[in-house]
Specification:
Length: 234
């Protein structure tokens, strides 16, 4: 289990663990007593793709598709193949033998490209010297799920009796209010959370649930805010 250094609303901090909560298994496909197996089959080869057919038969090769079947490789199409490996291709369809340079593309909300740059290293900040803090910004649960698309949820867990009381108190406070609180990292507690090296920065919302002496402290992560597009001028 991984660790997170977190502070409560009063500024008291502790290092606890977190993990993805268990979910019920999904329904299995198939009939009672029968198992479904997924297989992969070859559906086309490079020689039967449009670019190759256009080079060999010309642009107007529709009549040749009717007269024969140049788009089907009868020797290989339909064959089952074993587990495959992913490769990168150039714009000409040639296999690349070295990893390409990655480019980070920054776009505006309307999709307009704003900037291209080399990716910057993102260092994890959840188990640093400075703890992850409550920002004081709270939101009703029903509003949070309408404003943000949550892509991941992790559950905080205690490591001893003291951290149990520490987390339980936070869960009770949040459960009583019915709100989620925004967490932040960094010196001022305003930075998004990065869970691993070069990971995605997330907005993190902490939710508390209580059932008697039992509690759940869930950290909901989002990197997408849902905004209504501005109306177009007539």
């Amino acid at each position: 289990m991984r660790q997170i250094h977190i502070a409560n609303a009063g500024g008291r901090d502790a290092t606890v663990t977190f993990a993805t909560p268990k979910v019920p298994p999904a329904p299995k496909l198939g009939l009672p007593g029968a198992q479904v197996e997924f297989r992969r089959y070859i559906v086309a080869t490079p020689e039967t793709m449009h670019a190759h057919l256009e080079r060999t038969l010309g642009e107007a090769y529709g009549d040749q598709l009717v007269a024969a079947d140049p788009e089907v490789d009868f020797e290989r199409v339909g064959r089952r193949f074993a587990p495959s490996a992913r490769v990168f291709l150039t714009s000409k369809g040639e296999v690349m033998h070295a990893v390409p340079n990655m480019v980070e593309v920054i776009v505006d909300p309307d999709g307009t490209e704003r900037e291209r740059r080399a990716p910057k290293d993102q260092h994890a900040n959840i188990n640093a010297e400075l703890p992850v803090r409550w920002t004081g910004k709270t939101m009703r649960k029903r509003d949070a799920v309408r404003r943000f698309a949550f892509t991941r949820t992790v559950a905080l867990s205690h490591v001893d009796g003291l951290s149990f009381d520490f987390l339980q108190a936070m869960a009770k406070e949040l459960a009583a209010s019915g709100d989620v609180v925004l967490l932040g990292g960094g010196a001022k507690g305003k930075d998004p959370l990065i869970l691993q090296e070069n990971g995605s920065p997330y907005r993190a919302f902490l939710e508390g649930r209580v059932d008697g002496d039992k509690f759940a402290l869930l950290l909901h992560l989002s990197h997408l805010e849902l905004k209504r597009p501005a109306p177009k001028e007539s």
